[in-house]
What we know:
The structure holds three protein chains of three kinds. In chain A, a hairpin with a 2-residue loop joins β9 and β10. Chain A is built from ten helices and twelve strands. In chain A, the strands form three sheets. A six-stranded mixed beta sheet of chain A has the order 6-7-8-3-9-10, sandwiched between helices. A four-stranded antiparallel beta sheet of chain A has the order 2-1-4-5. Chain A has a two-stranded antiparallel ribbon with strand order 11-12. Chain A has helices at 42-49, 72-78, 94-99, 103-106, 114-126, 142-154, 172-187, 199-205, 223-226, 229-236, and strands at 3-13, 16-27, 31-35, 57-62, 65-66, 79-82, 160-164, 191-195, 208-213, 216-222, 238-244, 250-256. The longest helix of chain B has 26 residues, at 2-27. Chain B is elongated and about 60 Å long. Chain B has helices spanning 2-27, 42-45, 74-83, 105-108, 119-124, 138-147, 161-175, 178-196, 222-229, 235-238, 249-255, 269-278, 286-289, 298-301, 308-319; strands at residues 51-55, 58-62, 69-71, 89-93, 115-116, 129-132, 152-154, 206-209, 215-217, 233-234, 244-246, 259-264, 293-297. Chain B has 15 helices and 13 strands. In chain B, the strands form four sheets. In chain B, strands 5-4-3-6-7 form a five-stranded parallel beta sheet, with helices on both faces. Chain B starts with a helix and ends in a 5-residue tail after the last helix. In chain B, α7 (161-175) runs antiparallel to α8 (178-196). Chain B is α/β, with parallel strands linked by helices. In chain B, β1 and β2 form a beta hairpin. By secondary structure, chain C is mainly alpha-helical. Chain C has one domain (27-349): ABC transporter involved in vitamin B12 uptake, BtuC (Orthogonal Bundle), CATH 1.10.3470.10. Chain C has 17 helices and two strands. Chain C has helices at residues 2-8, 10-40, 47-58, 71-105, 118-131, 134-137, 141-161, 169-194, 198-209, 217-236, 238-245, 248-253, 258-280, 286-298, 302-326, 335-353, 355-360; strands spanning 162-163, 166-167. In chain C, strands 1-2 form a two-stranded antiparallel ribbon. The chains are: A alpha/beta, B alpha/beta, C mainly alpha. Chains B and C meet through α1 and α11 of B and α4, α9 and α16 of C.
Amino acid sequence: MSSLIATNVGIQKEGRWLLRGASLSLESGRVTALVGPNGSGKSTLLRLLCGLWSPTEGRVDLDGKSLAESSPIQIAKRITIVQQSISLRYSFTVREVVEMGRYPHTGRMNAHSDSDQRIVCEAMEKTDIAKLADRHANRLSGGEIQRVLLARCLVTEASTILLDEPTSNLDLEHALDVLHLCRDLSREGKSVVIALHDLSAALRFADEAVVLNEGRLVDVGEASKVLTPNKVQEVFNVQAEKVQSSQGDLGFLFRKQGGDDGIGKTESP
Amino acid sequence: MKGKSTSICLLLVLAIFFTACGKKGAEKNSDPVSDSSNPVRNSELDAGFPRSIQTIDGEIIVPNKPKRIVSQTLTTDEILLDICPMDRLVGIHTVSLDPAFSNVLDKAEPYRDRAVNGTEAVISLEPDIVFIASFSRAEMVAQLEAGCDAPIVRFSDFDSLDDIRKNIRMTGYLIGEETAAEEMVVELNRRIEAAKSRPRDATPPRVVSFGPAAYTAGDGTLFDDILETVGAINLSAKNGVEQFGQIGIEQVAFWDPDWVVCGSDPGAEEATKRWFFEHPVLQKTRAAKAGNLVLVSNRLYTAASQHTASLVELLAETFYSNGI
Amino acid sequence: MVKDKIIDTSTQTKRNRRFVGILFIGFVLVLFIAGVGICFGGPAIPIGSVMRVFLSHAIPGLTFDLSDIREVDQAIVWLIRVPRVLLAGLVGAMLAVAGVQMQGLFRNPLAAPGLVGTSQGASLGGVLAFATGAGLVNIFAVPMFSIVGAFVALFVIYMLAHREGSTSVGMLLLAGVALNFLLSACVSLVISWSWKDYEAAVEIVAWLLGGFDDASWTYAGIAFAGFLPAFLLSTWYARDLDIMLEGEESARSLGVGTERVTWWILLSTALLTGVAVSVSGVISFVGLMIPHLLRLLIGPSHRTLNIASAITGAWFLIAADILSRSLIRPEVIPVGIITSLIGAPFFLFLLVRERKELEIL
């Protein structure tokens, strides 16, 4: 069991506050969705949570110890992140790229042991890239890259997994796979944080939701309670309607603010 | 397509390069005057002006006896300072006042205010004849021709003692001082003959010119001609080096010369000696073991005038007595 | 599934096989070409004499009667030819490994010591060592100054061209051109200042021309002393550099101390380039061609790339040096001219291949 707690963190870059006053506690076994418009600070919060950026104010604690006082390796063993729109430019094989995720454990000189290999294979099976293992990483499609990076973050065996828009490049099937995988991981006891644009997916797959707007945490809490049509309207500036499918899954439908018949309008079934 | 044009460009550059190299060789054959040792035909000796000669730039005509002579090469400076009356020599090159290169420091001193360098300065002197260097660029010649209404004389051959004689005579002929020039050649010949007549060893000394910059004088160079004159063997020429070439220390050691001749500057002798005698391989050569390193001051080493006689004397004296 | 498993290892296996092949062939070639260099690289000394001199020096306890061999020939074999092939091999390895480091650090296949000003920086350092007179007093002064010069140049180009975890080709090349000009101008300036002392200037120019003509055991020793730590350092950080290739931030999230790695790699590259330049002058294109070709064959992994580049660079430069001495015997063509004649067309070819990326800029 681990805990990652952000206390009143804020970060300033080039004189501008990207995020301010964010407090958050992440528990294992939960999926947390970060939602908010573009530029609301989702990626910034993720970077702060894994120590890539140091907060200008406030602190992030991993198991009671500040990230600032932990070594990169210590952090990497506990927290892993897949960032948005990473391109793979070199002709490493997919397997080699995934193996890089073992770096926090093997270090720079040790060879990959059998158990390392097993972990790598499992991760590739889980993310459905086993058949790509031998392909050159610079010849993959956007969706394939996304899954390769997900596999790489799985092999770190970190207990906290941060994913920035993991479904943005994926087709429907693989997007759903990834979301299910997140939920499975949380059931294995990991803490999963996903920045998402798809509010319906957030509603269905996340236990908790964090709503961000203009660098502030607007609301934090249980997903079904936080993600309300009113909140969506307030933050995203669109009219929203919560609907339920015949199988009981919840989702959102959106309508352009003020307009009753514009582009982007979706009819309710 | 682009690749093709790139390679064509490269080929062109190479072609131009090699043509340029070829020209250097071709120029050597165009003797300014038919007789290689005496360009001045007797019938013309006393004849007045206009006078004309053939050079690499075509026929040069000197309409009147020059009264405003400007020299822009060290070689012609050295010749003119000896044969030309001071009032007619209105410009010399600044290099004649440079102790590193000049053999005529004392003689050039009175001309200090006439020492110039560059096209503009030359034109402003309003010369009626200009002597320039063989390595002067074509545009400098064109500029001079455009800027002053005077014959531009460019000597190109400095590769043998005969070339030197020819250049002296030609200079004298063009400025109407052929008698003084002829006297200078006679004196030059006398000194060379004296050097040649020194008693020699049974086996001719085997010599290499070489220094820290790794260049050597091979076949077809003035240095080669001098070595031949004093009865020494130029190992570089014998082994196929044409003109000046870069050779390795290994090569020099392999030839195992009796003597190594090296250009040097005042003050740098000790460093050059150390380089030679302390080099792990060069010190094993016969030359090093016998202490046979000849340091020649660069001004003498690079001279191509009557002062070259001093180098001939120095080498003959060095090779045929014992040690430096 | 079974089929997948077979494909699963094929690229890797192919690369591994090629790596082993390159190592094996490389070792054979190094020995063979070095042998050719020692026996035939230079004026003709009978091969039997060469072998006797070589063996009686190289193998302690083994003595031959050398009395029929001229003393100069003995010296040529043991004091010039042997250190010369060693030096050429070491410098080739150094330049190739330096190229690997730079291409990895800049994430750019066009980075190489001679192209982006690192070698020029080393030259300036060396020239300053001569001009201040330090080079004449202490034989380590020139290498030390060169290393510092290479490091400063490398640091400047890194600061200029490296932005947010990657380097644009255009910025790298343009900054490289500018830096090269600036440093060359400084070199010329220093030379013109020292021209008052003709002999010192000649010495500087001769040093700048480079090549292996001044090869000696001292130089080979200096080269080895520079190569070994830099090579170990770069191999030590090979996996970090691999991970950094795919983005600096994601590397940091995996626990790679990117800043520390960058500094050490910069240092190792400066050490390699500085020492290489100080013992052999600027030899271009070795550091560009060899890593690039090998990456195509054995993949971008730095561990294997380092080792393969070292061995390939070694035999390549020994061979180039033999060519430089034998094409117009007895004269010598500076070895840098040979490598440039082979390397410059290759560089143009790379530029044409990278044209798409250049046009975006």
